[in-house]
Design goal:
254 residues, mainly alpha, two-stranded antiparallel sheet
Length: 254
């Protein structure tokens, strides 16, 4: 049974994605395509991106810095393992939906092993015995089923998505124990803690991002490349160079 707070979150995100889809349809004359990048409402996305940067500057990053300062590294590692393990049923379900039945079986073993011997996932003994962690979600599943990536969108507070990955996230929430096993109050506190923990993991790359000339484009391109990497299990197809499309002057080779 999905509690009311999850339903409110899903409804809010669904409304946002629906509105963005409407904007995309209305903004076709401004569609920007660069390779595999489709950003039909870049002006809107950039405004939301600036809002997210301001929120991060004054709230997200300072809180994450304080959290990192008071939390020992070994504890932060355990917390990362805990949240990875807690949401791992999403990985198992999507592996099965993608036809990766052997992987789904091994992932189930990993979940059981880490949830028991690994003390609710705070430890990761499964990796030590060869049960490696995988990353699957419904966005990838939809991609394998042939659903197009759709337009790139920047979601307030939640950051970059595409129509496909955003839709997948909404569905994954309904089977993610992180959003199902706790009371509404406990769930809210847990997810705020989770978001802060995730932000702390990114503090190490802040200076690199700040040096980028166009941070919006950098985040967008990096996100889309990462999604492609996940979709192809780390082996995305290489771009083929068509020599027939190139014209050469024979005199250059004389």
């Amino acid at each position: 049974m999905i509690n009311s707070s999850v339903l409110k979150n899903i409804a809010s995100l669904a409304s946002l994605f629906t509105c963005m889809g409407i904007f995309a349809g209305c903004a076709s004359p401004q569609t920007i395509e660069q390779g595999n990048i489709t950003d039909p409402f870049e002006p809107i996305n950039r405004s939301i991106f600036r809002f997210n940067e301001i929120a991060d500057k004054y709230v997200g990053r300072p809180v994450a810095i304080g959290y990192q300062f008071i939390t020992p590294p070994v504890m932060r590692t355990g917390i990362t393992h805990f949240f990875d393990n807690l949401s791992y049923p999403v990985v198992i379900i999507n592996a099965a939906l993608q036809g990766k039945f052997a992987q789904a079986g091994l992932d189930t073993s990993r979940l059981i092993f880490n949830s028991t011997i690994g003390i609710l996932g705070f430890m990761d003994p499964a990796t030590d015995i060869g049960l490696v962690r995988h990353n699957e979600d419904l966005g990838q599943t939809l991609g394998i089923w042939g659903v197009p990536e759709g337009a790139y969108i920047m979601v307030p507070f939640f950051g970059p998505r595409t129509m496909r990955s955003g839709t997948g996230d909404l569905a994954d929430i309904t089977v993610n124990p992180q959003f199902q096993l706790f009371s509404s109050s406990a769930q809210t506190k847990l997810n705020i803690f989770w978001l802060n923990h995730r932000r702390s993991l990114l503090l190490g790359i802040d200076k690199e991002v700040e040096r980028v000339f166009d941070r919006y484009a950098f985040i967008r391109d990096t996100y889309l490349q990462h999604r492609e990497y996940l979709l192809y299990d780390g082996n995305p197809p290489e771009d083929e160079f068509n020599f027939e499309d190139e014209e050469f002057d024979d005199e250059e080779f004389d």
